[in-house]
Write a structure and sequence with these properties.
The protein has two domains: about 80 residues, Arc Repressor Mutant, subunit A (Orthogonal Bundle); about 160 residues, Glucose-6-phosphate isomerase like protein, domain 1 (Rossmann fold, 3-Layer(aba) Sandwich), CATH 3.40.50. With about 240 residues, it is an alpha/beta fold. A five-stranded parallel sheet has the order 2-1-3-4-5, sandwiched between helices. The model has no long low-confidence stretch (mean pLDDT about 80). α2 packs across α3, α7 crosses α12 and α8 packs parallel to α12. The protein is built from twelve helices and five strands. Pfam families: HTH_6. One of its GO terms (molecular function) is DNA-binding transcription factor activity. This is HTH rpiR-type domain-containing protein. InterPro entries: Homeodomain-like_sf, HTH_RpiR, RpiR-like, WH-like_DNA-bd_sf.
Length: about 240
């Protein structure tokens, strides 16, 4: 799949401009957005010729061919992506998912209240919801430190301060670096107070026995889109907050 290739390219390229363009293509693909060349160049803060060079490095003749392939892939693998979902049905699915995982919510509440701080290792997809969680916990005088995937390689900096409670959110496109990092983290530091949120696909690649508490994103109609996942994470974090 082309989108999988782009995700791997995003993880491995050392060129910052190419990384930005790959990230924008992946995000737009997930949200079913396909921009014109000029619009995409403006979004990525590069020239149109740079976009063309980027596409040729991926073995395409240009941006038009790349977008054509992405559109076809989107239509083939996401035939139901535009299906209308009743908001009542969707919120009920999330509510039922949270009820099925009430022990996770209770346990993380107890640990956060005990230590008054938590560090979150966030995937790109969950980062905005984590900022919301950080903001609402301030009213409870709880310190929330968010480690974005951008800082994963700076191992020494991250480990200057020890946090008893650590939440890892592994979903979306930046999982390789997160998985590589947390294995190193467990090897050197923590033994308890670990919480994991991940997907059915990702959990197969993780030694989940390392975690005291696990929550799987397995609610009905999860299609891995940012818009849906963001709502689920926000609902989850609000539920944790209201259980204090």
């Amino acid at each position: 799949m082309l989108i999988s290739f782009l995700k791997d390219f995003y993880e491995t390229t050392s060129l910052s401009t190419y990384k930005v363009m790959a990230a924008n293509l992946i995000t737009n693909f997930q949200d079913n957005i396909f921009l014109k060349l000029k619009e995409f160049a403006q979004l990525s803060f590069v020239s149109q010729s740079t976009v063309t060079y980027f596409c040729k490095s991926l073995k395409f003749s240009g941006y038009r061919e790349l977008i054509f392939k992405l559109k076809n892939e989107r239509e083939h693998f996401h035939k139901n992506v535009n299906q209308v979902i009743k908001i009542d049905d969707f919120t009920f699915n999330i509510y039922r998912w949270l009820q099925n995982n009430i022990n996770f919510i209770i346990n993380i509440c107890q640990e956060i209240l005990k230590y008054k701080k938590i560090r979150i290792y966030s995937s790109y997809q969950s980062y905005m919801a984590c900022l919301y969680f950080q903001e609402i916990l301030r009213s409870k005088n709880i310190l929330v430190e968010i480690v974005n995937c951008s800082y994963i390689d700076n191992f020494e900096y991250i480990n200057k301060k020890e946090f008893k409670i650590n939440l890892f959110i592994i979903c979306g496109r930046d999982c390789k670096s997160l998985k590589k990092y947390f294995l190193k983290l467990f090897e050197y530091q923590y033994q308890r107070g670990q919480f994991l949120i991940t997907t059915l696909n990702q959990v197969k690649e993780i030694d989940s026995d390392l975690f005291n508490n696990k929550l799987i994103l397995d609610y009905e109609k999860d299609d891995s889109l940012f818009s849906i996942r963001h709502f689920a994470f926000t609902y989850l974090f609000l539920s944790i907050f209201l259980n204090f």
